[in-house]
Each structure stands twice: as C-alpha cells, then as structure tokens.
Amino acid sequence: MKWTRYVFAILLALNLLLSWQLLFSEYGIRNYLAIKAAFTQYEQKIVQQEEKNKKVSNQIRWIRSSPDYQEYVVRKEWHYAKPSEHIYLFKK
Known about the structure:
mainly alpha; 3 helices
C-alpha cells in the first residue's frame, strides 16, 4: 500500500505542475484571454472602418454623379468661388 501513496503524490505533483503551466505559462489561459480581447477589439475597429469606407464610397459615388454636389463640395472644402464672387473667412 505504500507504493500507492507515492504514485498518488507523484500524480498530484504532476497535476499541480501542469495546472500551473496551463494557467500562467506563455501559452496559458491568461495569455489566451488577452489575445482574444485584443482580437475582438480589432474586429470592432474593422467594422468601424468598413462603415467609414461605405460612407466615403457613397460620397464619392454621389460626387461623380451629381454636378451640383461637386460644386457644393468644391466650394465648401476648398473655398473656391466663382469669378464674380468674394469669400470672406472669419476666425472663430
């Protein structure tokens, strides 16, 4: 019966060592959870960038198809004026 105690002690020590490795090693659960959190963050950023991309592509499509909107964008963004117009910009 003595040998069963030794086998049990060895198996318990091995189990504790492997559990420690599973929890705290470089490839353990903590690192996995950190990587998983970073991955979900990157997925959210990708979704946000895709939404931005859709908005910009819609605006580009609208600019290409509408001359009135082209004129609006040029006047608003680049402060262009017709030859008979003057633009005054006031500092805020």
